[in-house]
Amino acid sequence: MSARLASGLLFLALLAGWEAWCRAAAVPVLILPPPSAVAATLWGEIASGRLWPHLAVTMAEMGLGLAAGTVVGLGAGIALAESPALSRVLRPYILASQLVPKLALGPLLIIWFGFGLTPTVVVTALICFFPLMETTLTGLAGVDPARRDLFRMLGASRLQTLLRLALPTALPVILAGLRVAVVLALVGAVVGEFVAGRAGLGASIIAAQSVMDSSLIFALFVVITALGMVFYEAVRALERAVLRRYRKG
Amino acid sequence: MPTESDPGSDPAGFVAIEGVRYRYETGGPAIVDRVDWTIPHGAIHCLLGRSGCGKTTLLKLAGGLLLPGEGRVRVAGAVLRGPAPRVGFVFQTPTLLDWLSALDNVLLPLSLKRRPGAADRAAALDLLALMGLADHAARRPAALSGGQQSRVAVARALIGEPDLLLLDEPFAALDALTREELQDDLLRLCARRGTAALFVTHDIAEAVYLADRVAVMADGRITHASAVALPRPRPRGIRYDPAFGAACRALRAAMDARTAPVPTEERAAPAGPGGRAAPAGPGGRAA
């Protein structure tokens, strides 16, 4: 509790310092708007209703990209863990797909999918896929050999061993990967919009830049940060609910 | 062959390990080297040896988790080609599934084959009650002590009503008093359905207390074998009986004797007074 209080007080102190410096040094609003100007702009965006459609678009891209990346990452992790031969063949390609800068794929994705939701969702999914696949692989490899022997002794099929031993064992690690992915999903969605978006928070930043509205850019930062925190906390809550089964009960 | 084997069973024994040799890598050393052993129906045998002598590997061979490079293992007459059915295995660690309750852990062997019914749940609760865990059925492993986890592991191995139980130093990590309680629980549960058991241990007193017959293993071979001439049921106080001490001494001598390279397989222990085989093999002379 006192840590939260200290955290909140620090936040207020930083805001106050920022505001004071902007006023005292007469910093141009274009370079660094004071918090009061940012708050006013943010309120204006909220009150006028201009913010909501953009927020909805970014959330949709983030959600769809995260979902697709999670499903594919989990599936790829399981497939590679179950088949070492497949893993040896495919891993260089998967790594290469991650080393290509996603932003550089943007122009190509626009050619393939046009402007709008799809290229951004694809970029987001590509970014989210990797931590999920890696943590799934690590988690599945971490199953205790004695427990594998137990399942063999009990005559369990490969699918049963996967579903009832390996995946539940790997779940805490996989959920940690999901936490990483949810943060990256927001980055993917916003940056994807820079390149390919017509709407959304990232596209709004580009629009604000073109009219030199620094206050609006800062206001959008606040919204993006808040959105990230909400998604992250949602995943944490999911994680806690799932992992409660692993602790004393 | 143990002269005290049960009557009317397969003369070769319920479990027959025949000339089994095993290497982890081709060309490497034989971890298990030409071992012959038989276990009659309902008998409890202990495999005694120092760490690294190959006893866990032999146990895995007996359960079909490993397949021998040479020789064969037969359970109930059938040569093993994979994990043996109707055999319960208790590992060095309890290997419980952390996300399941004690009851669901016990039911795991059944639930992998079918949806457990009311009778199965009653049987599992019965086993937990026999293990003194009636009040802990709903708890998860993290909320159980080490001894309680080991009890759940034994109950899980018994739920399928196996004919043979293979145990790999299951109580080694427990304190002495808990270990004695679990030994009694194990003997009681094996006696209930006449379950045969092969129990791996490095603890001489544990081997003498549990076993009808003890094999001493070193460097992948069985270097000594003897029957334990103590009556059943064995009260806890038997540990302070001179005969118990003598049996322990003889086994210790057999374990020490093998530093001299005489890996003679002393299979036919001479029958001692009282009808059962004598506690000590020829290794006893080193004492």
Model description:
The complex is a heterodimer of chains A (249) and B (287). By secondary structure, chain A is mostly helical. Chain A has helices spanning 2-24, 35-48, 51-82, 84-99, 102-113, 117-141, 145-153, 158-196, 201-210, 214-243. The model of chain A has no long low-confidence stretch (mean pLDDT 91). Chain B is α/β, with parallel strands linked by helices and 287 residues long. Chain B has seven helices and ten strands. Chain B has a six-stranded mixed sheet, with helices on both faces. Chain B has a four-stranded antiparallel sheet with strand order 2-1-4-5. In chain B, helix 2 (102-111) crosses helix 3 (118-130) and helix 4 (146-158) packs parallel to helix 5. Residues 1-9 and 260-287 of chain B have low confidence and may be disordered. Classes of the chains: A mainly alpha (249), B alpha/beta (287). The A-B interface holds A 144, 146-147, 149-156, 160, 164-165, 168, 245-249 and B 60, 63, 65, 83-85, 87-89, 91-93, 95, 97-99, 101, 108-109, 112-113, 139-140, 142-143.
Write down the oligomeric state: heterodimer
Proportion of residues in β-strands of chain A: under 5%
Given helix and strand content, the structural type of chain B is alpha/beta
Helix % of chain B is: 25-40%
Distance between the termini of chain B: 25 Å
Number of strands of chain A: 0
Largest beta-sheet details of chain A: none
Radius of gyration of chain B: 19 Å
For the sheet with most strands of chain B, the description reads: 6 strands, mixed
Query: How helical, in percent, are the residues of chain A?
Result: over 70%
Helix-strand topology string of chain A = HHHHHHHHHH
Strand content of chain B: 15-25%
Rg value of chain A: 22 Å
Question: How would the global form of chain A be characterised?
Answer: globular
Low-confidence stretches of chain B: 1-9, 260-287
* Biggest chain-to-chain interface with counts: A-B, 20 and 25 residues
* Overall shape of chain B: globular
